[in-house]
Specification:
The complex is a heterotrimer of chains A (237), B (537) and C (175). By secondary structure, chain A is α+β, with helices and mostly antiparallel strands. Chain A is built from 6 helices and 10 strands, in the order E-E-H-E-E-E-H-H-E-E-H-E-E-H-E-H. Chain A folds into 2 domains: 75 residues, Ubiquitin-like (UB roll); 125 residues, Alpha-Beta Plaits (2-Layer Sandwich), CATH 3.30.70.20. In chain A, strands 2-1-5-3-4 form a 5-stranded mixed sheet, with helices on one face. A 3-stranded antiparallel sheet of chain A has the order 6-7-10. Chain A has a two-stranded antiparallel sheet with strand order 8-9. Chain B is α/β, with parallel strands linked by helices and 537 residues long. The chains are: A alpha+beta (237), B alpha/beta (537), C alpha/beta (175).
């Protein structure tokens, strides 16, 4: 496969033509914030945190779905990008009800970590304090929509890896939410295999195991690339 | 089917039509149906039947006659008189006057700019032919262009070249060169390819595509078939919103009739070329007008956009190369093939060739559907064709491009209507909605109205659009309520920039346009709604 | 001593955890004690906010009419206002009431869950605002120090920097 050489923040790098700017940035230890992206699942370009500037293009491009090109010059951390990224995080904080101090994922939350990393110490946006539901019907797992950032990792891991497609998105705009089985309570889901992958990929405390107290819900998503590879091997056979 | 057989179909119908002395053509498009044209048509038919005039006079249902605000409208042929706001009880008088000159009381005079300054290409046959009868369409030249390309001298590459040279650009709003799109799909590897017609017209105040689909459905099918021939596709979909019941019904009928006639389906006109068309109904989500969301919706998925590239030309429906054009774009194809690219590019401006259909509405005397050459000024459209502002009010702004567009003030009214000029003003051509506002309109309220629309229609996939539109709506509400602060204005402007720069698809990227353009031209209306910061106690 | 920095702390709708954390800076308190004058605080016995204060740390969100009047007055008499902790910055746990009408909350707190004296609060308790507001949405805030509570060392570093006449370099962490 052809290999392209290009620049990330002035640094010469190279990547196979099927690789993305995000792949190569990570390979070269260039930090790009991401939230919807997770290794092993199809990228959707939804959170817009990994957007970069590419010389010659007046549009910002999401690094997770932008394939490398010969000679491209990528800027990952301009002042403008930093500002937009902080605003994106602020938007997530105001659209939900994120109360870190009483959250099962406190200390293990990607949203919390990103805010720290990108220096979000407050927001000028208007807190919406929406009234959102909690589904604790399932005997092992629970979802707290107050903490959901709609990254759709659960939807994708359930469809792409587990093959159950229990999760999907319902409603639109600010009222969009992830649902199990056409919006029935999780306990009544006929498709859920209780594999728990959705719990592990959730970046926040939205999806969690019951009986976890504040800060106790650690996540382990390292199994994903392995499963993905195995599935591809299985499919090829 | 040889040429003679083909020509015979239309010719026979023309002769049959000519044998009847008078034709009463009643508009049966949505606008006039809503104002009662069905009852008018029934009453006229009863009148003709009662007087036993059916050999002398026929009542036809036709497509849109343009001045929707004055419906129900009907036209008398061959006199070419128009009647407006016709009621069923006018029937006797109308029939009495056949051949005696028009009934002046309800006559719609055509000696004004609305009728004189239009140039009809897309709508050439709207209001003339019966959209539910393929023979009527063929009497007006339907499928001639398709016949020409499939059975005569034009290779697919010739067709693509002709479209490219015509300078036609996408009529859905963005103005991407149609020929370039076709060439890209044509050059993709052979294999399954799809043609998609985007009839998911969703802008508030826009009804161009609806009217075309209702008035001349065969024109769209023909354009799609020519496209399929040019790029090597054999299947097509028309994505039409379910709200357009009449359009759906007519397109369905048109597809059935065209298949029966051999103009669609297997071995079109006995050539090796086959092309079939199916309808897909949208469930009313505005975002499904975005091409990648539309494709997802046809596939049976949730109608969410996805990042481009890959563009649909490379990977569209079910991963196959897909050509997706707007209704009006397809409606331009047959005339270009028949009259040549030079004829087409001679209309309009150098960079924006041809004509554009607009749905003129709002505070203007003549509300309706118009087709004008590109390059005409906004002033001509509003003051002349539209007849100016009613009730002695003054013009304030014209909104083009719907929720993705902007408001253009008086000082820019002499701007020519073309893709680049409108963009330079902070608006867009859009699909053709044109809403005129007078001095009673609050531009802040207008901006909030469109923001509410975008907020409701955001799919929720990407954060800037999902949350940003809601945040901007909240800020605009503060302005409307005169509770805003300086800081709110700063934040609003920052959000406009951020949402337009970072949103995933066109909906979010252009959602701030109505705010930005009103901030640009009517900033004082925002400033006068700012209250001084709270005085400390 | 003439050059002492006048510092105040104020407790709005929070749990006082931020104040506890402030006290938790241990030995540093002694180090800075001779550089600051704590002129107003729940920790000292002064009922009137002084004319002009150099630095005020505010804990808690703006929850009642009383809170609002207080913070507006304090802002007027403070050079630097520092939002201390998540409640002041986001509303945090107390803001979980924002999803419900005040009447429903009072009903729940003072009647349903009360064993004796079941009645809604009267004159003594300040009227609640419909929603808790972050401090900076009511008055301008100069420095944000998130955390629930902000760890002692972070408060210490911020204070030391401010006393040295520098703006603190805070790595923000909610929760």
């Amino acid at each position: 496969m052809p290999v392209k050489t290009f620049k990330i923040d002035g640094q010469d790098v190279s990547g196979r033509e099927d690789e993305t700017v995000l792949d190569i940035a990570r390979e070269n230890n260039v930090f790009l914030p991401t939230l919807c992206n997770i290794e092993g699942l199809k990228p959707v370009g939804a959170c817009r945190l990994c957007m970069v500037e590419v010389k010659g293009s007046n549009k910002l491009l999401p690094a997770c779905v932008t394939k490398v090109e010969e000679g491209m010059e990528v800027t990952t951390n301009s002042e403008r990008l930093q500002k937009y990224r902080r605003m994106i995080l602020e938007m997530l904080f105001v659209e939900g009800n994120h109360v870190c101090s009483v959250c099962v994922a406190n200390g293990h939350c990607e949203l919390q970590w990103l805010a720290e990393k990108l220096g979000v110490d407050h927001t000028r946006l208007n807190y919406m304090f929406p009234k959102k539901e909690i589904d604790v019907s399932h005997y092992r797992y629970a979802i707290d929509h107050n903490r959901c950032v709609l990254c759709t990792r659960c939807v994708r891991v359930c469809g792409e890896i587990e093959g159950a497609h229990t999760w999907d998105v319902s409603g639109r705009g600010i009222n969009a939410k992830v649902v199990t089985d056409l919006n029935t309570p999780w306990a009544l889901s006929e498709t859920c295999t209780e594999c728990g992958k959705c719990i592990q990929v959730c970046p926040t405390g939205a999806l969690f195991k019951k009986s976890r107290a504040v800060g106790e819900m650690t996540k382990d998503d390292h199994f994903l690339p392995y499963l993905k590879t195995m599935r591809e091997v299985d499919n090829a056979e | 089917m040889d040429r003679e057989e083909f020509e015979q179909i239309g010719q026979k119908r023309r002769e049959a039509d000519a044998a009847v002395e008078y034709h009463i053509n009643v508009c049966t498009s949505s606008g006039c149906v809503a104002s009662g044209s069905a009852a008018v048509k029934e009453s006229l038919e009863a009148e003709v039947k009662a007087r036993d005039l059916k050999h002398k006079c026929r009542v036809n249902g036709v497509g849109c006659l343009g001045l929707c605000g004055s419906g129900p409208i009907l036209s008398i042929q061959p006199e070419d008189a128009l009647y407006q706001k016709v009621k069923p009880q006018d029937s006797a008088e109308i029939v009495d006057h056949l051949g005696q000159g028009p009934v002046e009381r309800i006559e719609l005079k055509q000696d004004n700019a609305f009728f004189q300054q239009q140039q009809r290409v897309v709508l050439a046959n709207a209001g003339k032919l019966d959209p539910e009868d393929i023979e009527s369409a063929m009497a007006h030249g339907a499928y001639r262009a398709l016949y020409k390309v499939t059975t005569e001298e034009m290779y697919p590459t010739d067709v693509v070249r002709e479209i490219t040279q015509s300078g036609l650009r996408g009529r859905g709003g963005a103005g991407y060169p149609t020929g370039l799109k076709w060439a890209t799909v044509a050059k993709m590897d052979e294999g399954l390819k799809y043609i998609v017609c985007n009839g998911d017209e969703g802008d508030p105040g826009a009804f161009m595509d609806r009217s075309i689909m209702e008035s001349d459905p065969h024109r769209i099918l023909e354009g799609m078939a020519i496209a399929a021939y040019a790029v090597g596709a054999s299947e097509g979909y028309i994505y039409i919103r379910a709200e357009y019941g009449l359009g759906i019904q007519r397109l369905k009928k048109a597809i059935r009739q065209a298949e029966k006639m051999g103009c669609l389906g297997k071995n079109i006109f006995d050539s090796p070329f086959s092309f079939s068309v199916q309808l897909r109904l949208g469930a009313g989500a505005f975002v499904c007008g975005e091409e990648t969301a539309l494709i997802a919706s046809i596939e049976g998925q949730r109608g969410n956009p996805r990042p481009r590239p890959p563009y649909p030309a490379m990977s569209g429906l079910w991963g196959h190369s897909t050509l997706i054009n707007n209704v009006e774009t397809f409606a331009n194809i047959a005339p270009i093939i028949l009259n040549g690219s030079e004829w087409f590019s001679s209309m309009g401006t150098e960079k924006s060739a041809g004509t554009k259909v607009f749905a003129l509405s709002g505070k203007v005397n003549r509300v309706g559907l118009i087709e004008v050459p590109m390059g005409i000024s906004l002033r001509e459209i509003i003051e002349e064709i539209g007849g100016g502002i009613p009730d002695g009010h003054a013009f304030k702004a014209v909104q083009t491009g719907g929720p993705s567009g902007g408001c253009i003030p008086e000082e820019h009214l002499d701007t020519p209507v073309d893709y680049e000029s409108l963009r330079a003003l902070g608006s867009i051509m859009g699909s053709g909605g044109m809403v005129v506002m007078d001095d009673t309109s609050s531009m802040v309220s207008v901006a909030r109205y469109f923001m509410e629309f975008c907020m409701d229609e955001s799919c929720g996939k990407c954060i800037p659009c999902r949350v940003g539109t809601a945040q901007m709506y909240e800020l605009l509400t503060r302005f409307v309520n005169k509770e805003a602060t300086e800081a709110d204005l700063t934040l609003l402007e920052e959000l406009c920039e951020m949402v337009s720069q970072t949103s995933l698809c066109g909906l979010g990227q252009s959602a701030p346009n109505p705010v930005m353009s009103t901030l640009r031209y009517f900033r004082e209306e925002y400033l006068e709604r700012i209250t001084p910061a709270h005085e400390p106690a | 001593m003439p050059n002492k920095v006048k510092v105040a702390t104020v407790w709005l709708d929070g749990c006082s955890g931020c104040h506890m954390s402030f006290l938790d800076i241990d030995g540093v308190l002694l180090d800075i004690a001779d550089r600051i004058d704590l002129v107003y605080s729940p920790l000292v016995d002064n009922k009137v906010f002084p004319d002009m204060v150099d630095l005020t740390l505010v804990e808690g969100g703006v929850s009642s009419v009383d809170d609002r009047a207080k913070i507006i007055k304090i802002r007027k008499h403070t050079k630097l206002l520092l939002s201390l902790g998540d409640c002041a910055i986001t509303g945090n746990v107390p803001a979980m009431r924002n999803r419900y009408p005040v009447a429903a909350i009072e009903e729940r707190a003072y009647i349903e869950n009360a064993d004796v004296n079941q009645h809604a609060p009267n004159l003594i308790v300040p009227e609640l605002l419909p929603q808790i507001q972050p401090v900076h949405t009511v008055v301008p805030v100069d420095i944000y120090l998130p955390g629930c509570p902000p760890p002692g060392p972070v408060i210490r570093d911020a204070l030391v920097a401010l006393l040295n006449g520098e703006m603190p370099n805070i790595s923000p962490r909610f929760g």
